[in-house]
């Protein structure tokens, strides 16, 4: 996400509900609404950061739209916002989060904030690992004297240090949000239990 204001596409076949969501998010996002699947697919491109997607719609279902988004390789976050209670079929679905209607203004804003933060974390990690691999390559190929005399290498090290702090800060912020801290604790606990078996 290039800017602090995410581009959000609301896909909802009930216009009143779509317009309500848009009113709730309007001051924090660049918004577009689609009241059917065909319009949604026309609107989804590389400029869309987040899609809030209803599962059950006449014509193209949200599930079909989600599959198409992933097949196109679009790098947007998708939250299903639907009256369909989750079942085991969600395991294979490529969404990032799932809200069961009715949703509140706070829930909707929280999910957009969370998905924006997760996208930011992904971008930070990608840059961090790309720069870290360049540093490792230079460390292996150049002498200490060459490394110390290079301004480009010094800038690379400085950028890596800044990114390391940003990645840590973003991860802490993600962990502070509901559910993530417990999930990470569960993962840690499970891995410790497996090691002790």
Automatic annotation (TrEMBL):
The keyword Cell division does not apply. Keywords: Phosphoprotein. Coiled coil: none annotated. GO terms for biological process: phosphorelay signal transduction system. It holds the Pfam family HalX. It comes from the Archaea. Residues 7-116 form the Response regulatory domain. Gene3D superfamilies: 3.40.50.2300. This is Response regulator receiver protein. PROSITE patterns: RESPONSE_REGULATORY (PS50110). The modification 4-aspartylphosphate is found at residue 54. It comes from Haloterrigena salina JCM 13891. The keyword Phosphoprotein applies. Signal peptide: none annotated. The lineage of its organism: Archaea, Methanobacteriati, Methanobacteriota, Stenosarchaea group, Halobacteria.
């Amino acid at each position: 996400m290039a800017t602090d204001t995410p581009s959000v596409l609301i896909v909802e076949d009930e216009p009143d509900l779509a317009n309500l969501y848009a009113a709730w998010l309007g001051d924090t996002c660049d918004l577009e609404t689609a009241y059917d699947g065909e319009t949604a697919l026309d609107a989804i491109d590389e400029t869309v950061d987040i899609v809030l997607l209803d599962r059950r719609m006449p014509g193209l279902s949200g599930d079909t739209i989600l599959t198409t988004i992933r097949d196109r390789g679009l790098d947007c976050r998708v939250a299903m916002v639907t009256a369909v209670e989750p079942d085991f079929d969600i395991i294979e679905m490529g969404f990032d989060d799932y809200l069961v209607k009715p949703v509140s203004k706070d829930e909707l804003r929280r999910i957009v904030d969370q998905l924006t933060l997760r996208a930011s974390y992904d971008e930070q990690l990608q840059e961090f690992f790309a720069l870290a691999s360049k540093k490792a390559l230079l460390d292996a190929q150049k002498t200490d004297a060459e490394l110390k005399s290079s301004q480009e290498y010094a800038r690379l090290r400085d950028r890596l240090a800044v990114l390391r702090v940003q990645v840590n800060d973003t991860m802490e912020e993600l962990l502070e949000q509901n559910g993530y801290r417990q999930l990470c604790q569960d993962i840690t606990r499970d891995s410790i239990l497996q090691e002790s078996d």
